[in-house]
Amino acid sequence: MKSLEELAKIRESRREALKIRQGVPSKTEKAHIMMCGGAGCISSKCLDVVEAMKKALNKNGIADQVQIVLTGCMGPCDMGPVAIIYPDATFYRRLKPKDAEAIVEEHIMKGNKIRRLMYRAPGSKEPTPKVDDIDLFAKQKKVVLRNNFYIDPTSIEDYIANDGYVALGKALTEMKPEDIIKEIKKSGLRGRGGAGFSTGMKWTFTAAAKGTPKYVVCNGDEGDPGAFMDRSVLEGDPHSIIEGMAICGRAIGAEQGYVYVRAEYPLAIERLDLALQKARENGLLGRDIFGSG
Q1: Is beta strand 83-86 parallel, antiparallel or unpaired with respect to 90-92?
Q2: Residue 215, beta-bridge partner list
Q3: Buried/exposed code over 235-259 (b: 16+ C-beta within 10 A; e: otherwise)
Q4: Deepest in the core among 3, 151, 201, 227, taking most CB within 10 A?
């Protein structure tokens, strides 16, 4: 990637194709089926549902008009497998392969949503069709996992369409290392461990340290029992990890980065490894990124 203009071309081209996921009807596609592909839903056999969906689409001759996308973790793991159908943002839960034909033939082809597959709030007899109206989602603002509903974690184009690598471009072409650290301090960003230590202060200390070489290390171990937040980011939005580490490297003067992921997270390792490969192929890791030298 030699310039920000090149990044912008990819972003705008892919963004147009993804408008359907923002609720904008498409002239060429009937729907995008965003199937949760986090480790929880995979263990609930979401891949069997995906295969059944593909068969139903082929049977009805509309496979070229519907995209099936495996996303990162959507959150409600106890309801898995779950999926969101765009452009109408209908949320379905506890899916089984036998549900595929009804979703394709009734919902996607005829516009008749499947009430029995919708979420029902505790104590309510009426289903909640739209994902944004479900309490779990309506009452929270996703920041770290903001992309998990909308992107294919194996697609660098999807990440770029959602403003991926724009911040890295700005950090490399418009900002000095001290400017980046100042911005991080201003943001109030801090560690998510027990201490909640200021990220800006960490970067300040490391940038001032005289030892070389310097490294950026991402700790994806999650030693605390029942902690899965790092896994969800690594599985669902691996390019955000890469971009964040690259910005940190620029700010503190690091030459290399390491990501430690535990062996129990094979899906996280697989998706991160692919993301690293794609980032290198597109000139977003290594030397002279965006012509920065």
Answers
A1: antiparallel
A2: 256
A3: bbbbbbbbbbbbbbbbbbebeebeb
A4: 151
DSSP state of 211: -
For residue 225, is the peptide bond before it cis, meaning its omega torsion is within 30 degrees of 0? no
According to DSSP, the β-strands at 127-128 and 119-120 are antiparallel
DSSP character at residue 108: I
Q: Pick 163-291's CATH classification: 3.30.1490.190, 3.30.413.10, 3.40.50.11540, 3.40.50.2300.
A: 3.40.50.11540
Q: Note the pLDDT tens digit of each residue in 238-247.
A: 999 999 999 9
Mean pLDDT for the stretch of residues 231-244:
95
pTM of the entire predicted model: 0.92
For 19-149, the fitting CATH number among 3.30.420.40, 3.40.30.10, 3.30.2310.20, 3.40.50.1460 is 3.40.30.10
